[in-house]
Structures are given as C-alpha cells and as structure tokens.
Amino acid sequence: MSQTYSVSLEKIIENHKLEVVYLPKPADEIPITTAEVNRPGIVLTGYIDYFDSLRIQILGWTELGFMRNMSKEERERALGYWLGLKPAAAVVTRGLTIPDYFVDACKKYEVPLLKTDEETSPFLAALIAYLNRELAPRITRHGVLVEVYGEGVLITGDSGAGKSEAAIELIKRGHRLIADDAVEIRKISDKTLRGNSPTNIRHFIELRGIGIIDARRLFGMGAVKPSEKIDMVIQLEAWDSTKAYDRLGLDNEYVNILGVRVPAISVPITPGRNLAVIVETAAMNNRQKKMGYNAAKDLMASLGMEDVQPEDKEVDIWKN
Fold first, then answer.
1. Candidate list 77, 94, 142, 273, residue with the active-site label
2. What would the DSSP string read from start to end of 225-251?
3. Of 107, 150, 233, 314, which has the highest C-beta tally within 10 A?
4. Distance of CA 288 to CAs 159, 274, 293, Å?
5. Do 226 and 196 contact (CB within 8 A), yes or no?
6. Tens digits of per-residue pLDDT, 156-179?
7. What is the pTM of this model?
8. Catalytic option among 190, 247, 312, 319
9. 121, exposed or middle or buried, with CB in 10 Å at 0-12, 13-18, 19+?
10. What are φ and ψ of residue 177, in 5° steps?
11. By the 8 A CB rule, do 58 and 80 touch?
12. Which residues pair with 7 in a beta bridge?
C-alpha cells in the first residue's frame, strides 16, 4: 500500500498568504491529503454524487453570484447539502466580500473559511502546483544531486566512489549543489521527478580526510539550490577490466524511479579521470539528446550504418 502524505492548512495559509476568516480549530491541526481541488458550482445545485470532501473548495464570482441569486430557503438547503459533507476548507478568491450567511454556514458546519486577493485561475494553478509538490510520493536514496548547465544530475555509487569530491569540483566550476549523501526524490507528475536534501543535512558535504563542510558558507549562496528536477542519473563504479563498457552511447539506458524512467549512464572510475568534466559533458550530451540530436546516431549514419537500432535497457542502480 502506498504511503499517504499530508500538509497542514497552516503551511498552505503561510505559503499563499491567505486571510483567515474562520477556523474551527488551529490550522496546524487540519491536514490536507489530496492535491485535487474543487469549484463547488454543481454541488450547490444539489448534485452531491462523487463529491470528495478531502478537497479544498475554491469560490469566485460565479459561485458567490449563484448563491446570491438564490432564495433564502434554496441557499440554506444548498449550503447544508454542500457544507454538511465537511469539505477540507473553502477559499474565496479575488478579495470578494464574503456574505454573512456564508460565514455563518461555515461556522455552523465547522468548515475552515479563507480568503485571497488573487484571481481564481492563477490561485488555482499555484495551489495545485504547491499541493502536487508537498503531497508527492517520495523516496530517499543515497547519492549526490547537482545542477549542471541547468540539468539535474543524480550521481550514485558505492561509498567512497568519489561522489562528494565530484560535487565539490562542480561547485568550484560554477555549478550548484542540491543534496549530498541523502537525496529525497519526489514524483511531481508521471514524467517529472524532483530532488531535494533532508532539512537537517541541507548544504552539508562530507569529505573523507577533511570532514563535514557547509557548501553554502564556504562557497556562497550561488553554490547551492534548494531543489532541482532529476534529468539523468550517473552511476560511478570501480573499473572492471573484464567488463565491456559502452563506447558509443548508442543504446539508451534508463533507471526506474517511482515509475518514472530517467536516462542513466555508468562511468568507470580510474585514477586520473576528471569526474567533474565527465559529469559536465554527460549533462550537455543529455540536453542535446532531449533537443533531438544524438552524436552516436549521427556517426552511424555517416558510416552507412543508419539501420542500426538502439536498444532501451533498464538498469538497477540500487541493488538493495
């Protein structure tokens, strides 16, 4: 069974600068567990089938105007149908004046009532994006996440493989650190993963022989970033002379993270290899592939071997 995450109404209020009109209890005790939101127009007509009471309800001109044009009896009945289902919260947009009868009804049924000056559609988009991020399925994995030329690169490998050293060199070359040692990965959508660092170790890097350093204090604010999408995975592994390594890059390797396929490559480690330069080159090459150009395919075509078809391979970078 998948784990369910929640975000408190208090955090939503703070993040979106909402005005509190009524709360039945402290906002930090009211959990929101779904990224779906609802505009209750059809519910006000009396149709309550399939209504999801876990969703935040958004009201703009349309909903308030519809209630205003109802008779008192119709309005009381409609609000009873709707608010009696105990929706998670109601938010009135555009800075509209909230009628007393709506405030009284929210108090009667103990439904949190909030207000924002934002217009309805922009607020809806911002709220859904925020909830998708906060409530996303997530896992924490060992590795280093850096932003290189705008690409989010997750570097994995055994302990002592050189991940943190590569991150330091990348920072010195103008790139940014998101997480070292533990990377929290969130599935924002069916095609997008976003990584960040656990709060208690954010900006810290462990370097064997030196110890713990704070990248933000040592290299400045431009050296770190709170989160980044994950565009590719680079697996560092010890050189194995008996293994046949891919020298063309024609085949496409992927790693499956939370059901999302992410491009992956394996880089053998030998003394003298500049891992930072390799990561930079891999990031630029990955961006080039996303833009439609594949150097390996171009080479095959120039050699008259354009019929060679690449394979898609799924690799397992976390054997445990």
1. 142
2. -SEEE--EEEEEEE--TTS---SS--S
3. 233
4. 30, 21, 6
5. yes
6. 988 888 899 999 999 999 999 999
7. 0.80
8. 247
9. exposed
10. -90, 135
11. no
12. 32
